[in-house]
Write a structure and sequence with these properties.
By secondary structure, the protein is an alpha+beta fold. It has one domain: Alpha-ketoglutarate-dependent dioxygenase AlkB-like (Jelly Rolls, Sandwich), CATH 2.60.120. It contains seven helices and 13 strands. The chain has a seven-stranded antiparallel β-sheet. Strands 5-10-7-8 form a four-stranded antiparallel β-sheet. Strand 2 and strand 3 form a beta hairpin. Helix 3 crosses helix 4. The protein is globular and about 85 Å long. About 4% of the residues have low confidence. The structure holds 2-oxoglutaric acid and fe (ii) ion (FE2). Fe (ii) ion binds next to loops. GO terms for molecular function: dioxygenase activity; metal ion binding. One of its GO terms (cellular component) is nucleus.
Length: 273
């Protein structure tokens, strides 16, 4: 038998609650409109289980230890969610020009050990995914995140990340792909000029890794000690030095067009030493 009285009361309670919620929403939208507009975009990534890093080691053929490549670390939806965070209005003021690219630093600059700043949701979610996947030190989620944006044909000159990032760096690639070169610690590198790179005496990288969108690159140990760089180029030529060609779905001789933009997110655990 239907209890009309309690049905009636439930309906009345529902109406009162709906009215209260509408009033609260209006109140918030008038008083905090700017704050809400500037609120960071939420970013949900699915939970990760630890990866078996040995399954993703790619440098052995070229004698480079500590180089790992994980294809499809993010799904396409997750990539889109992270990119929404990178390009959210509240992050717009964080872009700083740096060489041919522009960068956002989160969690303070790499050299500022004392700056404690909460990471925005996209960076926190990705940092957690990287740490849950077990690709950074155990129990130590990254606390510094650098976002790089390259517009074709921009690259980054060969460099070593120095002590501050030691002992390992994880990089997630978004939107466009690129070939990263690992060069000897010292010595010349023909990183910018393709003509130069074709000279018979041109120095050659120790290894190359083709970075597909949504992949994760991890370098530590020997690979950390090398310099790394991305050529200024609109097309990446896959050579026998490319250690992950098969898993990245490219083959020697391929000329892979760069996308218009590549975004990379670099994760570091800064420690007071
Ligand atoms: O964009 C990349 O994958 C490399 C970035 C890099 O080497 C750096 O930020 O130190
Ligand atoms: Fe670097």
């Amino acid at each position: 038998m239907v209890d009309m009285k309690s049905l009636f009361e439930a309906e009345r309670a529902r109406r009162i609650e709906a009215k209260r919620a509408t009033a609260a929403a209006e109140e918030t939208s008038s008083s905090n409109a700017d704050e809400i507009r500037a609120a960071p975009a939420p970013c949900d990534l699915s939970p990760r289980t630890p990866l078996r890093l040995a399954d993703h080691a790619v440098g052995a053929d070229r004698g480079v230890a500590g180089l790992h490549y994980v294809p499809d670390f993010l799904s396409a939806d997750e990539e889109a969610a992270v990119l929404r965070g990178v390009y959210a209005p509240d992050a717009a003021s964080r872009w700083v020009a740096s060489g041919q690219r522009r960068v956002q630093n989160w969690g303070g600059r790499p050299s500022e050990l004392d700056v404690a700043e909460p990471l925005p949701p996209f960076a926190a979610a990705l940092a957690r995914a990287v740490s849950d996947a077990g690709v950074v030190a155990e129990g130590a989620a990254p606390n510094h995140v650098l976002v790089n944006e390259y517009r074709r044909p921009a690259g980054i000159t060969p460099h070593n990340d120095g002590d501050i990032y030691n002992p390992r760096v994880a990089i997630v690639t978004l939107s466009g792909g690129a070939l990263i070169d690992f060069w000897a610690r010292e010595g010349p590198a023909s990183e910018t000029d393709d003509e130069d790179a074709r000279r018979p005496d041109a120095p050659s990288p120790r290894a190359q890794v083709y970075l597909r969108p949504r992949s994760l690159l991890l370098y530590e140990g020997d690979a950390y000690a090398l310099r790394h760089g991305i050529r200024e180029a609109s097309v990446d030529r896959i050579t026998p030095l490319c250690v992950n060609a098969a898993v990245a779905g490219v083959k020697v001789g391929d000329e892979v067009e760069r996308g218009e933009t590549r975004v990379s997110v670099v994760f570091v655990r800064k420690e007071r030493r």
